[in-house]
Amino acid sequence: MQNMARNRFEKVSEVQPDAITLLLKRDNDGACGSIVLPAAASRGRLTTDQISAQLPAQDAFRGAIRLANDVKLALVVCDPDGVWKSEWGDLYQPID
After folding, report:
1. Is the distance from CB of 83 to CB of 11 less than 8 angstroms?
2. I need a surface site. Which of 16, 43, 77, 87 has the fewest CB within 10 A?
3. CB–CB of 79/11 below 8 Å?
4. Within a 10 A sphere around the Cβ of 57, how many other Cβ atoms?
5. What are phi and psi of 11, to 5 degrees?
6. Dihedral sign, CA of 8, 12, 17, 22?
7. Residue 28: pLDDT band with limits 50, 70, 90
């Protein structure tokens, strides 16, 4: 039996205008995240960026995947505090 391919996500340093961005951070309560759907990526359906409430990191990750699949957009990850868990997939940074 072959292993399933792991999901790969681009790691970015800021919110991207053409993709859903999962913002991960660490605070006093532990690891959390929020999801940003930029108006620019909504094909005219949104007039302002939509930003979710803070969620536990794993819930934010799952919600971001669901949203990205629903609206057919790429999902990128902004993770300055190193919250990402390897079981979620691989983070990569493209070489310019």
Report:
1. no
2. 87
3. yes
4. 22
5. -90, 130
6. positive
7. confident
- Geometric angle at alpha carbon 89, from 78 and 94, rounded to 5°: 55
Sign of CA dihedral 23, 29, 31, 35: negative
User: What CA–CA distance (Å, rounded) separates 81 from 73?
Assistant: 24
Q: Summarize pLDDT for 43-84 with one digit per residue, the tens.
A: 888 899 999 999 999 999 999 999 999 999 999 999 999 999
Coil/strand/helix, residue 68 = helix
Q: Could you give the CA distance from residue 23 to residue 91 in angstroms, rounded to a whole number?
A: 13
Side-chain-facing half-sphere of 71: CA atoms under 13 Å:
21
Q: Tokens 């999801």 — which residue?
A: 35
